[in-house]
Write a structure and sequence with these properties.
Distance between the termini: 37 Å
Structural class: alpha/beta
Helix content: 55-70%
Number of strands: 16
Largest sheet: 5 strands, parallel
Strand order of the largest sheet: 8-9-10-7-11
Length: 990
Amino acid sequence: MDGGPRVPEQRRPGFPAEEEESGALRFGVLGPVRAWRDGETLATGSPQQRALLAALLLREGRTATAGELIDALWGEEPPSQALAAVRTYASRLRKVLDPGVLVSESGGYAVRGLAEGALDLARAQDLASAAEKARSAGDLCHARDLLRRALDLWDGEVLAGVPGPYAQTQRVRLGEWRLQLLETRLDMDLDQGCHAEAVSELTALTAAHPLRERLRELLMLALYRSGRQAEALAVYADTRRLLADELGVDPRPGLQELQQRILQADPALAELSAATAETATATLRPAQLPATVSDFTGRAAFVRELSDVLSAASGESASGRVMAVSALAGIGGVGKTTLAVHVAHRARAAFPDGQLYVDLQGAGARPAEPETVLGSFLRALGTADSAIPDSLEERAALYRSVLDGRRVLVLLDNARDAAQVRPLLPGTDGCAALVTARVRMVDLAGAHLVDLDVMAPEEALALFTKIVGEERVASERQAALDVVGACGFLPLAIRIAASRLAARRTWTVSVLAAKLADERRRLDELQAGDQAVEATFELGYGQLEPAQARAFRLLGLADGPDISLAAAAAVLDLPAQDTEDLLESLVDTSLLESAAPGRYRFHDLVRLYARACAERDEDRPSERGAALSRLLDFYLATAAGVYAIERPGDRLVEDLEPTRYPGLHFEDGSAALDWLYSEAAALLSSVRQARNSDRLRPAVDLLWAAKDLIESGANSHQYEATARAMCEATRTAGDTRAEGRARTTLTNVLLVYGRIQQAEEEARLAMELATSAKDATAVSWVANDRGLICLHQGRHADGKIFFEQAIQGHRAADNRLGEAVTLANLSRSYLALGDVSKAVHIAQRSLAAHSQLGRPMRRASAHFALGLALAKANRHAEALGQFSDAQGIFDDHRQRLWVGNTHFRIAEVHLAAGQFAPAAQHAEQALALGCVGGDRMRGNVVTLLGRALAALGQAGRARACWQEALHLYEQSGAAEASEVRALISPTSAA
């Protein structure tokens, strides 16, 4: 559905390449009737011969008599030689197919001996059946994938070109089945939250099948869940009117009920389906277990997971039991002990022979000795002191013997490592052990490992409320969310903060939130009595080796939400392998988290503690600044390399600040873009972190080199905040060159958002600063931006002047890419000035220049400009070709907003050509993706969508679109508002 041109893999339609077998015979009926052997298409003869083959294939191995085949091919008026013709067709097919496939039987024929899945219809049926089973089991993702694969087997019209009444009947049947599968898949799409994506497809389907009420119902629900309530109600109005006019009936009750629920804004309509599992609860009974906390909150999934493991260990029949070990790992204060004790109490009745507990003191300086613990356990199990042996091995053996035949739960809390735990594990089935530790016990054989993370925000708020009281929190909910957020959703921190507030009746929640807002004081605030978050972290930090401690301190300095292995290597100034070893060892201690393979992150409070350690323990304070400088250099060097790959011929990379630390190198553009988008948040954080340092220029250059992040749509807001921060920092520092470049990046963001007035102000200031600093590179690019601003403002002559200035600057610098990009924009100026032929000529020059440079990313702008010019010249087919090329490139390079713009322009061409259904479909896709140009461009899209819908007879929904467009235009003061009012007025009058 991405719309871009693709070169398909050369294989037969309807069958995935991986299913081909050597010598296998395959058939297709979900399209033209075809046969293949070893991937080669076989000649299946005339239309009547293909009709015979289809009739036999669709009988699934059952025999068809000659009379039945004659009826299938010719109906009530067969030719005089019909029987001879059937025999001839069968004889010819035998020569083409494998021996024994087409057999004669009882005066008729049958197709037998086909391999499993040899017929595309059979495969579709199998996939649909598997999808239904997956859906029933609650696995909607797998079910949707199976249905998508089934639907992909259709290749145009079923039995295309095959004559006869039987073929026609099957076409109708299979067409109806396909629609049912589509409806089922779309229903699951909505259950999975894909409502915005579904609107475009449903719009096209309702236009093609206007009387199909189920599709209308799904479209109403998709629109409602996308926040488009007025359009959802308009679909109902259009449907009711259409059914009355065409069939003289009202919508079915389900559709009427949905309309009423939308009118009432029924909250249940916004709920998505989710697989739920019931878990058995058990009456709990204490033994050695510590008391569970009365305010235990959340952790439902972990409770269920651990309870299931314990349940397996305590099965009623001995053959169904195992000795189960669950090891919980996590950062100090994350609630490992609280969770383990809570789960143990729930499972107590399943272990009637007792529950053992010990704090192994693994995070302290003197961990408990296993032999001492075993002595305590043996006494608790009734062993006399005189019978307890001295050695660890003998005690462990006796312990396992005593537990044999019993059902005992052992809770080993705060373990240091697997070596400390192993002697304490029961050895027989029916028993179970729960272990908590700060390290992941990957070397504890057979253990069920559980990594415990911080609480979800709602869980954290619920815990805070239970301690503080509903009345105090209800009136200051936002402040309470700020408090648990400042605690990093860490249970220990939340308990400490809530306990402090509960003990101070004169404090409000806002007072506590204000105290925690200061990051430098936050750890000091999070202590109450003998509990302190910092002390908990100190226990783990004190056990680190010197190299681990240095890595912990320095990595905590970086502001990003996470950090890649390569970036961490730059911070530590170490080879990648040594860095990975250090980081993985920190992960094992739970002081660092592995966010994904090759990516790492700190908990927020652990990061604050690491920074405090860096200020306290780092022997050379200059090392902190050097670490952050290496990180900035790494990002700039790598981003410059990505920029160079994506924009060959652009001389900007030669005009960036030099770096002292190398970056990564990529063999292809896809890997380069993968890096840029995966590193976006960390990269922008590094830029912002440099605003108070002496490295403003490389930071601003990094922001410019990463400008692709703007047009992707995913990082635009974060990029804008960073650009504004750098504008202020460079202005304060008095660095004219850096400020000019920072304001250039901000201009780019504002143009994407469609905030033209602000963009004009920033571009004017950027031009003045760049000129003053003699920054020719920035001057040329800002001139291009000012030309674009003039296009938006209707100042086309001025825009032409700015574009020509930019082209002169790029030529002087031998910046061939800059010249090619600006030529595409200049084409749009000529188009706006009415010189269509000149616009076409300039766009073609831009396209030729881009083609010479090789990398296609910026070539999309030339295709786009040429498409605009050709559309204006009413050369619709050629325009669509150019837009299709542009869209494919934009999509490949993840420029989501430009893909949206291209869908809009394609919709314009279809509308001008009178093709209203595809116009509406592409407009919907533009809305789903978003567009460069912000709310004003959205207004343009919904206006066009309204025109297409009106032409399709959906007047109610068209009016809803125009009302939304009017609101958007009036908010921005756009001149198009009057045009939309004129569209609405006739509808009102009607």
